[in-house]
Amino acid sequence: MKRSKTIVLAGLLFMLLASTACNPGYLGLFASIAGENDFRVDPTAAFKAASSSSLVQFNGKYYAALSRLWERAEADGSLWTVPAATKDYLVDSLVVSGATLYAAFRDDAGLSVGVLSTVDGSTWDSAALPITLGAGHELRGLLAANNLVLAWSEKFTAAAGDIPASSVYSLHYLAGAVFTAGPADLSSGLPHSLMWDGSNYWLGTGNGLYRGLDGAALAAVTLVGAAATASDQFSSLVYDTGRYFMTSSGGKLYSATDGTTWAVSQGPANTSFTTAFVIDGLTTDSYLLLGTRTYTASSTTYEADGYWQFDISDWIAGTALTEAIRSYDPIASRTNFDTSIGNSVIVRLAAFDTIDGKKQLFACTLGNGLWSNQRVDGTWAGWRRESDR
Amino acid sequence: MRLRIMILLSVACLGLQLSAEDAAPASDGLANTTVFEMFQPGDALLTLSAGTSLGIGFLDATGQFVPANLDPAVSIGLSLSIFLDNHWALGGEFSGLFFTTIADRQYFCAPFAARLTYAFDLDPFAISPFVALGMAVNVLDDMRSLNPLVRVGSAFTWRFNTEVSYGLNLDCSLIPEIYADPAYQSHALFLFGATLSATYHL
Known about the structure:
Chain A has 389 residues and is mainly β.
């Protein structure tokens, strides 16, 4: 009898030890399942695998550039559709300025149609806004901040002999209903960001920054502490209440308080940042979200890692970006992040306040569709896949 | 994949039935005229079962019951019980549960346990409540864990002939995953299983 009790107790002890000792990783297996969100909507395969370059809120709807122009009502659970008015066009980028939505369209043959605008989201200009492109230039995209709308064009020079392929870029700013030529043939690298800090417009490009009181006055800024290289280009620029942040394709985060003197934070090894986004207005904390992309270095490919999130409420310039200070809450649980966009290339992040007091956050991915996350009464619902059916 | 498993199990069950019919025609006449206990000491029952398992929910570390976030699983199982007397049987069981989570992840649970059964002889039927104690191997993506398992349930069987019975099995399982630090990760999973079975009376 005593022996039987010993065997039973030993068995129970073994089960307890096995239960507590065999769960490697950051999270319990059951806790991981319990923390999941149901995002199994049923989008079409094309929508599920779509890439998005820009997303805006306009006139009670969201608009996204997913090859075609797509729109969705703000109401929860609304589906994305292609409006009839623009169904025959491809769209490169979308911006909103004032009470007008602008889109750069191409036809199905890939030829530029130009920039069209709408004030109600459904009735578009009958003709493209006038723009005179330089010889060899093609219209590529739009950027907007405050009251400035910029169209940028690219002139590509193919490699020839010892001369490598290269591009130059020209800027055109919207004056009234006409795009007027601004700085031209800049060896600036790809224009990616335009923002307004309350005094100046700042244009972020692959190689540097341009600053000006308006589109005509944009001029290169001499940067201290930040320099791009051929393999480490600047990839985004954001401004948040007195702080400037800039990311690079080499996995660096630059921060400054004046836009000219920068402190560099080295990111995790073999990571490439695509975009930066600051989300604030959430009680007392602000968070910086840095999108990543798949990155190849020395013939080794490193997979994208969704986005890296940092609490920048008390940010100290130059702080190294390590896993230890990376956070997931409150926007998403680690499980929700890992099972949704944790392995996606994040091209763009955007957040909007809705008319019913919620905050809607979107993630535009490369090849993994659109995702959203909603904050209601102070709590984030977690990432969910957007759908078109 | 699951359809293939179900077809395979159906074929296996059918094969079990056919082989039993081949082996036992002579005893059918005796069964109608001879009074005997349905189970004798030393009898062994080999049971192959297939069906589904439903995640009822998780009991988290705060004592809250939260959704299991699991779609119904395809489950397959094999058990062997040896009768100690006319009612009590001791044996073991092994099963595999194939779940898909609501985030489209694949969760595989493989319980193995010792099983104590008490059989109520209602010839040609039998009701056999059981309790099983063992472990469950859990696999989710690249995560693995080994957790204790408690399962209670009952088999409701119909004796097709002296060697083969068919049955319905209903059970509830509890699989706790305990963390000392951080304790909030501790969760206990409750599962409800319903399977159809073919039992070969060895």
